Amino acid sequence: MSFQIGKLISLILQERFGIIIEKVGNFLFEYGSNPLLYIMRGTELPLGKVKEALCILIKYGLVTFKPNNNENIANYSLCIDNILLMTRYPKFLNLLKKKFGDESEMIIEELLQNSYLSTSDIIVKVAERLKCDVNDLPNVRDKFVSLVVAKYIQRLPTPNEEERPVPILEIKESVLFSLPKIDMKLLSQVYLKKIPKEELGETVFWIVNFDRFHQDMRDKYLVDAFTKKFDENVGEFVKLLLQQMYIRTDPWAETSNPVPLLEIKDIVRKKVIYPNLVTFFDQYVTVIEQDPSQIIRKSGEASGGSFQIQLKEAYNQIAWEIVEQVILEKFDSKAVRIFRLVKLKKFVEPDQIQQLAMIPSKEAKKLSYQLLEENFLKLQELKRPLANNGPIKSFTLFYIDLESIVRNLLELCYKTLYNAMTRKSHEKFINKRIIDKKQRVDAIAMGIQSQGATEEQLADIEDMITPPEREILGKIDRKMKKLNIEELEVDATIFLLQMYLKYQ
């Protein structure tokens, strides 16, 4: 793994868990899988602290363990992808809130905060946050059940039946999303604190299924791409096509199985949200079929034919567009023209670029070698003898290695994300006094408001913050919002590039 990812992981662990866990994480990142005593020596931390740090990291799925060669000692490994996912939690919550509502968002939020919970813990915690009556518990239960059925939540792996010094955590795929029996009478008594939750005797715990969220994000970006390219009706068509794809195709397949057009047409007729899609359905089908990107292709002619989604091709084209946009922002439109030329021709001689791209020779050479220096282009040398025992002539060709470019861009994204997070920490540190004062004033205002304070009393509390301080707080707030938006946009680019690599 790269140096940039190491810096980002270190910062995430420090912000969320503290210095001790950051040290343990840094050691595992740098030296890979290691047993407990090696981690203790490498970090120079007391054994108890290392054990506590590993317990927390294992609990949150950020470290895994497995037996070493003699099967008596565990080797611990850092789950780098799971640590990087922590920056994406707000997106998961927002996505679920829009799709299922506030209760479902709270269920996922509780699981993300606690890592894993039993069924009763989830229902009781969310009900307490909502201040529900005991009669409303079934509503929370139904939301929980719907999330399990939709596969946003899955069972936590447990130690297998074999007795070993180092347990092996596993779970059968057949029971991954199976629901246990929920006794609402006993659960109501737990909620009312009439009996302890231990009397329920629960053995099933639940965790968040990140893979399911990534499927939704993948589909959303694809639908958004078609909506921007055409209109909302085409976006809705693609959305329905993806939904029907899940019935007959593995979610992460490169190409979906054929989805009958009549099936989509029937679903569209039942919906009243997009009347134009019903009226001009055949015309929209023709537009999609003739789209040069060929992401959605028609297969078969019987009964109107079927459509297939080329997910690998879709994210391949998205990756090309991201690279071209980066080149445009980093250089100019002429550099993009050169890049597209090499993409079209596969291999191009340097002398041909000025002719084919219609750019002056000096400028074409400058831009070409700038692209080469930044690893957007690569060189390949070919040698060919002119005659037997004669001089050897060499040809230099420009070509593109998209996978290499994507990996370089990911490194740049990780660096940008690290810089944004570091800047946020710096802004909080240098303005700590005024931020703390604002929090104290807000806490006092909330306290007296709950006691029935008048508007004059609340105004007096607000006046504790002077106009110059209020102006500074406004500037801090604008900076923080800007940095938060930057983080979300960079994470979106990271996700799209990761999708390209996943399908390779």
Describe the structure.
Residues 7-65 form the RNA polymerase III subunit RPC82-related helix-turn-helix domain. Residues 192-317 form the RNA polymerase III Rpc82 C -terminal domain. This protein has 504 residues and is mainly alpha-helical. It has five domains: 3-79, Orthogonal Bundle (Arc Repressor Mutant, subunit A); 101-208, Arc Repressor Mutant, subunit A (Orthogonal Bundle); 212-309, Winged helix-like DNA-binding domain superfamily/Winged helix DNA-binding domain (Arc Repressor Mutant, subunit A, Orthogonal Bundle), CATH 1.10.10.10; 314-400, Arc Repressor Mutant, subunit A; 405-502. Helices cover 63% and strands 10% of the residues. The protein contains 23 helices and twelve strands. The strands form five sheets. A three-stranded antiparallel sheet has the order 3-7-4. The protein is globular, with a radius of gyration of 28 Å. The two termini are 19 Å apart. The mean pLDDT is 88.
What topology emerges from the helices and strands here?
Blueprint: H1 3-17, H2 19-31, H3 36-43, H4 47-59, E1 63-67, E2 74-78, H5 80-85, H6 89-100, H7 102-114, E3 117-118, H8 119-130, H9 137-149, E4 153-155, E5 158-159, E6 169-170, H10 184-191, E7 205-208, H11 210-229, H12 232-248, E8 259-260, H13 261-270, H14 275-279, H15 281-289, E9 296-299, E10 306-309, H16 311-330, H17 333-345, H18 350-357, H19 361-373, E11 378-385, E12 392-399, H20 402-430, H21 432-450, H22 455-462, H23 467-502
Antiparallel strand pairs: 1-2, 3-7, 4-7, 5-6, 8-10, 9-10, 11-12
Helix pairs in contact: 1-2, 1-20, 2-3, 6-7, 7-8, 8-9, 11-12, 16-17, 16-23, 17-19, 18-19, 20-23, 21-22
